């Protein structure tokens, strides 16, 4: 495979020479700024062999580099070996930016190429300024992989389907009204929606075009008087066509969007900075551009009563599957026959037996011992470890149900663990509980709460490189913005109705990883003379393994929180379990 990668890079360099560009930048995304992309747009993976979900490859006439974050340092180091592509550890103090590196290896006046379809407006504008400071020129060229990638996968062909009102809680027409009200406030004639989860939410449609994410490839253009869905026509069933007609939504071929923007007759178009650069250029030739985040991001992030009810119901069913899995795992690990891959299959089997199950919400991370230290580890037949009755298993998984999306991590004790592992496990738990207990005033953003989860680790000289929490979509993408909990500043305030994860962790390379994660709901707490306060309600229902806890490191308040949470887990799940399963859960959730 390494030799094949080298051949692909040679073919790209030949393309670059024909185009007169000295470097070409290949991001991980698609024309819709997706985190997870269909195979058709996995160009970065194709050119480099790196399979992580985040990273940017840069190829010059004689060099190559990959920039990725700390989640993938170990994985990228292994996969890039002998390819001629150097790993650059993004966000570390000594790592140059892409522009800084290109300034060192290129000559003044050189051209740097991008494909405008897979780079956002915000990215292009920032990169152009950075490159100009190095006397380099940024140019948009045709997608080279249309020529170079033999047997390139086609655009996805699956058909979208209708999400009934009993699950969505708000009609498509009401959602369009909210969007149009936003257009009036911004004095925009129309808005282009390119984010797939925003289109799916607005139209109350779901699809199967993106692995683990129930969305479909399309664009949506909304004006004050009409709406047009751009989608491959062969994807539309008679039922969906009738539904769109009923909601006064026209359809046009997916490939016509650029030309229609070039010929737009209105005065102004609102575009998100996350819109791809090619469509931004097309729109800006025919109308003035109002560059603002899509209003749908926040509308979608604040769940309605029906969606909240659905989350609660989905979490109960998911919790039942998790409990049955934990019982099975604790019994079968002694056999020495189970592997990271086999337990993934078992968990899928148990979840798929739950009603309204639609698939997994992301690829399961089942990391035994040292594999747990690889934050986004994914077992393969070549790497899958056999589990033994000792040490720790980090299991991060989730599911898609018609009424909600789940995301849960548990670090599971399989047998004897070291004192160091117990200490680290308890430090993670203390941070997890501190964030779970938080009460905060209206207007607080996730960045202001992030330290709660890290404080005990910091006192021990430990930190983790990923964010502490992300939004979770309602039968949509498991990673949802605009709110987050992380160290770098994310200004969006947390509001009642938002879902968000709580997932601190400790990762010791080559040894083990520990993470505990619940999905939570922001809810009102109280109102005092100092204003309105909010708090978190746990949505996830699953016992936290008590065997690795150092009780001497917990305060009485922390112990009481854990006992109360475990009582909630038992009360909610036990009615759906057999008597033997209830007995196991009663012990797993017994008071410390």
TrEMBL record:
Keywords: Aminopeptidase, Hydrolase, Metal-binding, Protease. It comes from the Bacteria. Gene3D superfamilies: Creatinase/methionine aminopeptidase superfamily, Creatinase/prolidase N-terminal domain. InterPro entries: Creatin/AminoP/Spt16_N (IPR029149), Creatinase/aminopeptidase-like (IPR036005), Creatinase_N (IPR000587), Pept_M24 (IPR000994), Pept_M24B (IPR033740), Peptidase_M24_C (IPR032416), X-Pro_aminopeptidase_P (IPR050422). Residues 312-522 form the Peptidase M24 domain. GO terms for molecular function: metal ion binding; metalloaminopeptidase activity. Residues 8-143 form the Creatinase N-terminal domain. It holds the Pfam family Creatinase_N_2. GO terms for cellular component: cytoplasm. Belongs to the peptidase M24B family. PANTHER family: XAA-PRO AMINOPEPTIDASE 1. This is Aminopeptidase P family protein. It comes from Phocaeicola coprocola.
């Amino acid at each position: 495979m390494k030799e094949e990668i080298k051949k692909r890079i040679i073919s790209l360099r030949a393309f670059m020479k024909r185009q007169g560009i000295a470097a070409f930048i290949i991001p991980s995304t698609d024309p819709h700024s997706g985190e997870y992309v269909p195979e058709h747009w996995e160009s970065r993976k194709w050119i480099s062999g790196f399979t992580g979900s985040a990273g940017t490859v840069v190829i010059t006439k004689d060099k190559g580099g990959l920039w990725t974050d700390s989640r993938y340092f170990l994985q990228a180091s292994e996969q890039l070996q002998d390819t001629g592509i150097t790993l650059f550890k993004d966000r570390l103090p000594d790592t140059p930016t892409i522009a800084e590196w290109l300034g060192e290896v290129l000559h003044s006046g050189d051209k740097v190429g991008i494909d405008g379809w897979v780079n956002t407006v915000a990215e292009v504008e920032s990169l152009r300024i950075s490159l100009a400071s190095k006397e380099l020129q940024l140019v948009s060229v045709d997608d080279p992989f249309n020529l170079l990638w033999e047997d390139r996968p086609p655009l996805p062909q699956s058909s979208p389907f209708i999400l009934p009102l009993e699950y969505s809680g708000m009609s498509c027409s009401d959602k369009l009204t909210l969007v149009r009200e936003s257009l009036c406030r911004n004095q925009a004639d129309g808005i282009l929606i390119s984010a797939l989860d925003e289109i799916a939410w607005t139209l109350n449609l779901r699809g199967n075009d993106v692995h683990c994410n129930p969305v479909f490839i399309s664009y949506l253009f909304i004006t004050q008087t009409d709406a047009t869905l751009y989608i491959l026509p062969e994807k539309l069933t008679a039922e969906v066509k009738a539904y769109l007609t009923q909601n006064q939504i026209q359809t046009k071929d997916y490939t016509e969007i650029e030309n229609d923007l070039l010929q737009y007759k209105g005065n102004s178009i609102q575009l998100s900075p996350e819109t791809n650069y090619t469509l931004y250029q097309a729109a800006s030739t025919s109308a003035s551009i109002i560059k603002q985040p899509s209003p749908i991001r926040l509308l979608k992030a604040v769940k309605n009563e029906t969606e909240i009810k659905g989350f609660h119901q989905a979490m109960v069913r998911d919790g039942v599957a998790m409990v049955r899995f934990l019982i099975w795992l604790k019994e079968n690990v002694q056999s020495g026959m189970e592997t990271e891959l086999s337990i993934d299959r078992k968990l899928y089997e148990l979840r798929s037996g739950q009603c309204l199950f639609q698939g997994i919400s992301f690829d399961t991370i089942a990391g035994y011992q040292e594999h747990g230290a690889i934050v986004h580890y994914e077992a393969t037949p070549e790497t899958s470890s056999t589990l033994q009755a000792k040490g720790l298993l980090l299991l991060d998984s989730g599911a898609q149900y018609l009424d909600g999306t789940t995301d849960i991590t548990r670090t599971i004790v399989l047998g004897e663990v070291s004192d160091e592992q117990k200490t680290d496990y308890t430090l993670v738990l203390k941070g997890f509980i501190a964030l779970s207990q938080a009460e905060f005033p209206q207007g607080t953003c996730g960045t202001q709460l992030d330290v709660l989860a890290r404080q005990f680790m910091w006192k021990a000289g430990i930190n983790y490189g990923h964010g502490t929490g992300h939004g979770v979509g309602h039968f949509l993408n498991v990673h949802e913005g605009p709110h987050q909990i992380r160290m770098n500043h994310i200004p969006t305030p947390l509001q009642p109705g938002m879902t968000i994860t709580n997932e601190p962790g400790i990762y010791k390379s080559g040894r083990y990883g520990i993470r505990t994660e619940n999905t939570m709901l922001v809810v009102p707490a109280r109102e005092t003379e100092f204003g309105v306060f909010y708090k978190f309600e746990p949505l996830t229902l699953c016992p936290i393994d008590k065997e690795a806890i150092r009780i001497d490191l917990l305060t009485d308040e922390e112990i009481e929180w854990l006992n109360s949470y475990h009582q909630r887990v038992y009360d909610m799940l036990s009615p759906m379990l057999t008597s033997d399963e209830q007995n196991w859960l009663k012990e797993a959730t017994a008071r410390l």
